[in-house]
């Protein structure tokens, strides 16, 4: 690679414009769901690809991703087989899950509330009219909201990812990379993942809300 690998934007070092692909060696496409209403079960998809188009104007950047449904793993073969069946992902009929971004916006970084109230309490007591409330300041942050559409079992629904930008640099192998993490929550029944068992004590066997947990690095393409 030649030329500038990074640039400054709103006080942050961000990647140069270009096409970036998800690094298969540095990624996790994970999820978390509740079992028996009390315990979290984590899993992930081992096989996934993503293309990130970094625009000269960062807020015009875009992401597309494809996840191979059959690569699901939770550390239990019987559970994985059930999740792959028609009760859940039905991987024979729907081999992939797809994500396509539709927009991105930066989240302001507000002054931490603890320090805000500490400054307020540190003022000398006096008449109410003399108390000056410190202004909370919006500061540059590496947090973004990535709006988009997730397709599961042929059903497409809007999903907003809460993204944390991890930084950009050139690695020891001469590759231009940047890191990120992202989370979201979806209701699985909205995608036709309806299977469940009612518990005698109340509630259901498998939680209806699924938390998405993503982390990875992306590599700039020549």
Automatic annotation (TrEMBL):
Domain named Lipid/polyisoprenoid-binding YceI-like: residues: 19-219
SMART domains documented for this protein: YceI
Pfam families for this protein: YceI
Domain of life: Bacteria
Family: Belongs to the UPF0312 family.
PANTHER family: PROTEIN YCEI
Protein name as it appears in the record: YceI family protein
Gene source species: Plantactinospora alkalitolerans
């Amino acid at each position: 690679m030649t030329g500038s690998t990074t640039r400054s934007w709103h006080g942050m070092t961000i990647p140069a414009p270009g096409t970036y692909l998800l690094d298969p060696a540095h990624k996790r496409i994970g999820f978390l769901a509740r079992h028996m209403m009390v315990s979290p079960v984590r899993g992930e998809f081992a096989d996934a690809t993503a293309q990130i188009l970094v625009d000269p104007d960062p807020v015009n950047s875009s992401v597309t991703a494809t996840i191979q449904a059959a690569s699901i793993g939770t550390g239990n073969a019987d559970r994985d087989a059930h999740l792959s069946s028609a009760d859940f992902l039905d991987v024979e009929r729907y081999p992939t899950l797809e994500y396509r971004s539709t927009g991105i916006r930066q989240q302001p970084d507000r002054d931490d509330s603890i320090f805000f109230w500490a400054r307020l309490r540190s003022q000398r007591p006096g008449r109410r009219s003399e108390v000056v409330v410190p202004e909370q300041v919006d500061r540059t942050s590496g947090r973004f909201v990535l709006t988009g559409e997730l397709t599961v079992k042929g059903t497409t629904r809007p999903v907003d990812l809460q993204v944390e930008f991890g930084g950009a640099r050139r690695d020891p192998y001469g590759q231009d990379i940047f890191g990120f993490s992202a989370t979201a929550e979806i209701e699985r029944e909205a995608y036709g993942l309806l299977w469940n068992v009612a518990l005698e004590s109340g509630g259901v066997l498998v939680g209806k809300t699924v938390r998405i947990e993503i982390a990875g690095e992306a590599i700039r393409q020549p």
